Amino acid sequence: MLSAPKGTHDLLPEALATWQYFENTARSIMERANFHEIRTPLFEATSLFERGVGDTTDIVNKEMYTFEKGDRQLTLRPENTAGVVRAYIQHGMDRCPKPVKLYYLGPMFRYERPQAGRQRQFHQAGVELFGLDTPQSDASVILLAWDLFTTLGIPDLALEINNVGCFDCRDDFKNQLRAILLPFKDSLCEDCQKRYETNPLRMLDCKSEKCKAIYASEAVANFLEADHTCEACQQHFNALLIILTQCNIQFHHNKMLVRGLDYYTRTVFEITSTHLGAQNAVCGGGRYNGLVKTLGGPDTPAVGWALGVERLISLIPPQHPASLDFYIASDDPGSALLLAQQIQHQGFSVEVDLSGKNLGKQLTQANKLQAGQVIILGETERQQNQITLKDMAKGLQETVDKDSFLTSLKRPPVSSVLR
Ligand SMILES: [Zn+2]
Ligand SMILES: [Zn+2]
User: Domain check: are 307 and 342 in the same one?
Assistant: First the structure.
């Protein structure tokens, strides 16, 4: 029997009710904050991710789905920031009024060992704000994520935040960090010994107990406790913390937080929920002032975040597919289908018999489908331009004029409910 590939999953209608609830809520909150959706291709040139995500990262070294077609090297997107930045540059969006505010929702692909909450095809939602380098813009995207999680009812939220410095001060910090860790270098794990050379900041992310113990030791901890960023970076960070306090967002300044990707500058953050246990981040992001230029665009500051949808969905109370509003029982398929369409246009869900069952069996079917109301459209009703409405739960029924019934149906169309 054929089954879905390892690390992928089918989303069936029962589960999708919760997904759609999340997606509708997310779209609505982002659109109201004046972010607009962007959809980029599921695959891009491999070099985009090598340059944009960084060729020292696990994502690029171990986890990408790369393939060749013709003379092109292509990769299924492992994340969406690089693709959005590529599109921003390609379509000259730097000429749009600043800031340019975009969001996305969709599948990403990483070749990882499948484990709880981690899939090879997984989904992310995220926002990117281009063109401003202010603490206000950092605060606005954090506030947006916080609003989304609060609206979705995610329990026990916390904001972990750090300042990793800019291009002016980060190299100094890296060198100082190398100097302070030199005596411990041989005791570090294999990965950290590589990171020591290539990207020492990422050593602080290490999950190995022996490395964690070294970074928590007195000399290293004292060094990390001090602020090593330049004055401009410190002012930016302090201003951001003041705004977050004004917006009632409780944060924890976590000096070990560096995030896995190379392109972050100044602000990095994660939003966590203690309900998730050890892997407790629901959302991560930060400022990435160098990325647009790195990918060949004009020097453009930017800030954003991404969230893992699967992980978030596990925290949302399960939703159920919408119930069926009407079932039309009729011995005349044409009249039934026409009436169904008229009711659907009023924003209600309708089912009709498509199998040629007799009226009695159609009523049984309406019961099985748990329709809220059954509309009986028999010969008598059709002659009088009437319908018989039957409330299945209450067992009540009445015959009414069809046109007045249709005008009495008023529900805003589905698309406007979201706004
Ligand atoms: Zn700096
Ligand atoms: Zn390590």
Answer: no
